Amino acid sequence: xRPEDSTSDDPVGEAIARCVKVLRSSSELKDxxxxxxxxxxxxxxxxxxxxxxxxAKRGDDDARQxxxxxxxxxxxxxxxxxxxxxxxxxxxxxxxxSEAARLVLAFEQRQIERALNxxxxxxxxxxxxxxxxxxxxxxxxxxxxxxxxxxHLELAxxxxxxxxxxxxxxxxxxxxxYQSEDVAKVLIGEDEGLKQLWxxxxxxxxxxxxxxxxxAERRAKAASQGDAERGSQQKNEDKTDPFREPVARLDDxxxxxxxxxxxxxxxxxxxxxEPRPLPPD
Length: 281
Hints:
The protein is mainly α. It is 68% helix and 0% strand.
């Protein structure tokens, strides 16, 4: 049995059911959602936001004026993953939440763009930039983390020591973008600030990755020379030690008293260290 079929002991469920009955009338829906707004129950806050969004879509002036608050509320339920569970409180909420999904994503993109604009505007002010970076949400989203990486580099250049670690923690995204223009285009998007920061950073990345390649080549060469020297030393020992048992050739596995010869172990492959954070200008 769904919650809307039995709400006698559930005040929030009853309030939601009353809103559903007047869903087609914006004025009555506004009055019906008043009780939901007074409740701290997550179901009530979620339902009230969805009903207010429905009123805004129908042109209700009061709801339109509250769109920023409605969007922030729905984004909270979207980001913490509770929206789908809360929408199960009533079949109509399930429908409204499904219809709102695209709008919620659009809200999130606009919020990110506003935060990016704020970061670019405050790029020369350490305190203001730190505050703007905190507005870049949701945490963990690749484009947000890419932007945080670039702006923490700016903070580090402004003397904020803690931003060095924040930059280094996300530096792997810079490596991805450097190696793939397609990835860079997706993460930069159309934001002019990110475009400029990436353009300014590229020469340093060119130098950094060229250095890594040179180090890898030197290590590979050193490993190869070391193997050759060890092989030469082994041959000399075989010639000078009269008591040393002769070593069978690789194809002598059928000689009496000798076990089959195993395969040669491959040469060790030199590892390339992970990129370290770039030093400040």
